[in-house]
Design brief:
Largest sheet of chain B: 4 strands, antiparallel
Number of domains of chain B: 3
Structural class of chain A: alpha+beta
Helix content of chain A: 55-70%
Strand content of chain B: 15-25%
Structural class of chain B: alpha+beta
Strand order of the largest sheet of chain B: 3-4-2-16
CATH superfamily of the largest domain in chain A: Multidrug efflux transporter AcrB transmembrane domain
Strand order of the largest sheet of chain A: 2-3-1-4
Radius of gyration of chain B: 35 Å
Largest interface: A-B, 70 and 74 residues
Strand content of chain A: 5-15%
Largest sheet of chain A: 4 strands, antiparallel
Number of helices of chain A: 10
Order of helices and strands of chain A: HHEHEEHEHHHHHH
Number of strands of chain B: 17
Number of helices of chain B: 17
Radius of gyration of chain A: 25 Å
Shape of chain A: elongated
Oligomer: heterodimer
Helix content of chain B: 55-70%
CATH class of the largest domain in chain A: Mainly Alpha
Number of strands of chain A: 4
Shape of chain B: elongated
């Protein structure tokens, strides 16, 4: 079996369409972030990991308890935010947390109210979390630093292994992926917690991986005989087409695994998997439609830079 | 050794055996001494999200911001040691205790059933002090000064606002203090008197209270050197006592400290407020041993302690000088008991836990006393608990998803690459063993995101194989002989594999550095996965290919 053997698509030609698509996606995301700032006070729906606060998860033995019933039991309109967790009657209650209160007292309060309404044996507390506001703020900062730091390291590594322009193009593509992912999170108000940050960093890794495979091929083709005389657009297109079977197959297997995780992996990692699937789809797209065009644009503006200066091979003397 | 196929196979088998051994030895040692009987033997350590348990981040409390970074670091070192000792004695299977930053401690206790008890054992300061109970005369003389200080600091209006919270039935206390009399009886009669009085009288009484905010909360004590404060007034009294101005207005070298018991008098409940020397004459530093037991006489839980030789001498000398006085045993700022000193006391003593306290609590106290006092108060800044049922669900679902994911990968690889696909799948099998062995070898913890990381790294391992196979196909299309095509395919794919693996590894390392708990687990699995995938693709798949190519002529077709 073989896909895309001898493929000859003109990807670079279509880069304007890709720019419009990416630009629109990023703008929608930014608009959603701004909208979120005005409606929920922060640009993403942060979970307790980042805002600080508490969370109590309860599981009911009977399957027909609704979020409304739980809300009524916890004080109706004054009730803390309640979200359903998974398929069964399991709920996450984000109880407010005053200064100096412990999670035990919060959880005990929730338990008391729920057992008054449903009876003491109707449910069990399956998870509690408490994060101090200070810790939450620090985590936000650390997450941002982690992403920035990974950019810098990649840039340095690629500048050494390839050339600076490859590094720049890869970072542009990765930033693009992160922006679109963050936009998606903002639009659908997916809760951002620590595993989400892990997912975003994985996307960084994956997207880089994809980009590097294509760049590796471009580098190789550039060093081939007569490459310098070729149209760079043609050369890049050829490299993308050559790596296309690999790109499709690898993304395909990874997505297959992730789909299995999404459908069967349970509720704890659902958000995590959704973010990964989205990121990997975007990462694959961006290595073709963003990273390679970015490389081309950089090359056009600033020339090929080092590659020519570094190897000023004299033309073989001909008679 | 790497040159011949035979040598390569030996290396692979050796590595597989090593990985298997890691898993086996981890399995064997997983339920060591001190583990609860419920401990299940496993080849890999499971994270809290998988088996349930508690994750705590504790921070050295520094309310006034006076500690230097070095002082905090030293403090957390001591806290670390003491909490380790306590948890060891408590008996938890593979607890994780580690310092984070310079003033935090992470404590992870997997699979514990009683979180509140564990938390109590960790957080109890267990600071034991012995103080002398003072006659209340000096304190009573100081009360007007203390009242004036409170009025002066808070202002009359805010005291009036608080005064309403004092509640009815309290208004006669000042008179009781000034004129003496039986507390309970006086309280009852004055309470009745106020009830019969009109609303106007009540107002004037509370106006007077506002000017005596603190002393109006105090009732005569039931033992020398004590006051009684109605339970509902305790928070207000605590608030007053915490004011620095009030602390300065106290008589020299004296403090007021709460008793741990609640005392019933008539229909009301009171807490004792003891008048004590400010400095203890002896602390828990000199404690050598502590055992929980039951007081046979009153059937009360108690903790019997034994002081060191030096401590015993000091104790003896001091109690010898104060026969007839009352001795307060203060634990974490609460007076546990205040017996009268009948004779000089030697190296042994006991802490009464009060009626109705379960023996278990006495055992916990004895444990923390033995382990030593914490040098500072610890605040919980992060706490997560996962019930065992949620963890079990995650394992079940994660394994099902993992198996289905792997089956999908196997199907895709074999249908796309045929024989080469089968070789790759075999190499992936070796890869999975490497990863699991690596996880066991590094004593890494498997978490939910960790499983995801594992599955993702399988994806990356597949990628390396795909890169190689695509290269081989290209070389074959270009018309090269089979063996050359395979060699070229491996060597040409190498640079892409190296670069992509290293960049992902860099990201994983950053994750490891930044992450806590589950994220860290993810980073570890991903890192180990990347290294293993590299080895498996470059070395193992290659070896399998060499075996497959053996006996084939250079021009024979291969199934790829």
């Amino acid at each position: 079996m073989r896909f895309f053997q001898g493929a000859d698509y003109h990807f670079i030609e279509r880069r304007k369409t890709a720019y419009v698509f990416s630009g629109t996606a990023i703008l929608i995301g930014i608009a959603a972030m701004v909208f979120n700032v005005f409606t929920i006070g922060s640009w993403q729906l942060y979970g307790v990991d980042f805002t600080g606060g508490s969370l109590v998860q309860v599981r009911f033995n009977s399957n027909d308890v609704t979020a409304g019933q739980v809300r009524d039991a916890l004080g109706g309109a004054q009730s803390p935010p309640i979200t359903k967790f998974g398929e069964n009657s399991e709920f996450v209650i984000r109880a407010s947390l005053e200064d100096g209160m412990s999670i035990d007292s919060v959880a005990a309060g929730v338990e008391r109210q729920l057992s008054a309404a449903f009876g003491p044996d109707a449910f069990s507390v399956t998870r509690t979390e408490l994060v101090g506001a200070k810790v939450g703020g620090e985590l936000q900062q650390k997450a941002l630093l982690a992403v920035l730091f990974s950019f810098v390291l990649t840039l340095i590594y690629l500048a050494i292994r390839f050339e600076l322009r490859f590094g720049l193009a890869a970072v542009i593509a990765t930033a693009h992926d992160i922006l679109i992912t963050l936009g998606f999170l903002a639009v659908f108000r997916v809760e951002v917690d620590l595993p989400t940050v892990a997912a975003i960093l994985t996307i960084v890794g994956y997207s880089l991986n994809d980009t590097i495979i294509v760049f590796d091929r471009i580098r190789e083709n550039m060093h081939k005989k007569g490459a310098r005389k070729r149209d760079p657009v043609e050369l890049i297109d050829e490299s993308i087409n050559e790596t296309l079977p690999r790109t499709v197959l690898t993304s395909g297997t990874t997505l297959a695994v992730l789909l299995a995780l999404l459908l069967l992996g349970g509720d704890v990692i659902r958000n995590f998997t959704v973010v990964l699937i989205l990121g990997i789809a975007i990462g694959t797209y961006s290595s073709i439609f963003v990273a390679s065009p970015a490389l081309l644009e950089i090359q056009k503006r600033w020339g090929e830079g080092k590659i020519r200066e570094k190897k000023p091979k004299p033309e073989p003397a001909t008679v | 050794m790497f040159k011949t196929v035979r040598g390569r196979l030996i290396v692979i088998v050796a590595m597989m055996a090593l990985a298997g051994w890691q898993l086996y030895s981890h399995y064997r040692s997983s339920c060591g001494e001190g583990s609860p009987p419920s401990c299940v033997k496993r080849p890999l350590k499971l994270g809290l999200d998988l088996q349930g348990g508690m994750h705590l981040v504790l921070e050295v409390a520094d309310p006034d911001n006076t500690m230097t970074a070095a002082a905090k670091a030293d403090m957390i070192d001591r806290v670390d040691r003491i909490i380790r000792t306590r948890i060891d004695e408590f008996g938890v299977e593979e607890p994780l205790i580690q310092k984070a930053g310079n003033d935090r401690l992470i404590v992870e206790l997997a699979g514990i059933s009683n979180e509140a008890q564990a938390k109590n054992i960790i957080q109890t300061a267990a600071y034991l002090e012995f103080k002398l109970v003072q006659p209340t005369a000096d304190m009573e003389a100081a009360l007007p000064r203390i009242d004036r200080t409170i009025v002066g600091t808070l202002g009359v209006d805010s005291i009036r606002a608080l005064g309403r919270d004092i509640g009815g039935g309290e208004q006669g206390n000042i008179e009781e203090l000034l004129f003496g009399g039986d507390t309970a009886a006086a309280s009852d009669t004055t309470g009745g008197a106020v009830d019969t009085a009109g609303a106007a009288a009540r107002d004037s009484a509370s106006a007077e209270n506002a000017l005596r905010p603190f002393s109006s909360l105090l009732n005569f004590g039931d033992a020398p050197g004590t006051f009684l404060v109605a339970v509902e007034d305790v928070p207000l009294a605590e608030q007053f006592l915490a004011m620095p101005e009030v602390q300065r207005a106290m008589p020299r070298d004296q403090v007021l400290q709460w008793g741990s018991d609640v005392v019933g008098r008539g229909a009301r409940n009171y807490k004792r407020l003891y008048d004590l020397t400010e400095k203890p004459f002896l602390t828990g530093e000199y404690l050598q041993n502590a055992v929980a037991g039951r007081d046979p006489q009153f059937n009360q839980s108690q903790v019997q302690f034994e002081l060191s030789r030096a401590g015993g001498r000091m104790f003896q000398r001091f109690t010898g000088q104060h026969v007839g006085d009352y001795l307060a045993i203060v634990l974490d700022g609460e007076v546990m008991s205040a017996p009268v000193i009948r004779d000089r006391i030697g190296a042994r003593g006991q802490i009464e836990m009060g009626a109705g306290t379960p023996l278990e609590e006495a055992r916990d106290l004895a444990l923390v006393l033995r382990a030593g006092a914490l040098p500072a108060k610890l605040n919980v800044v992060e706490e997560r608990t996962v019930g065992p049922s949620l963890g079990k669900d995650s394992i079940d679902q994660g394994s099902v998803a993992g198996v289905v994911g792997i089956v999908l990968v196997v199907l895709i690889m074999i249908s796309y690459y045929r024989m080469a696909g089968i070789l790759a799948v075999m190499a992936l099998g070796v890869y999975v063993l490497f990863v699991l062995g690596g996880l066991a070898g590094f004593n890494a913890t498997l978490t939910v995101p960790g499983i995801a990381g594992l599955i993702l790294s399988i994806g990356m391992a597949v990628d390396a194989n795909v890169l190689i196979f695509e290269r081989i196909r290209e070389e074959l299309t270009a018309g090269r002989a089979t063996r050359t095509a395979v060699d070229e395919g491996f060597s040409n794919a190498l640079s892409a594999i190296v670069d992509s693996n290293i960049t992902t590894l860099l990201t994983a390392l950053i994750l490891f550095n930044f992450g806590t708990g589950p994220v860290k687990g993810f980073a570890v699995t991903l890192s180990i996965g990347i290294v293993a995938s590299f080895v498996s693709a470059i070395f193992v798949t290659r070896t399998f290919f060499l075996v497959y190519l053996r006996g084939k002529k250079a021009s024979d077709p291969i199934s790829i």
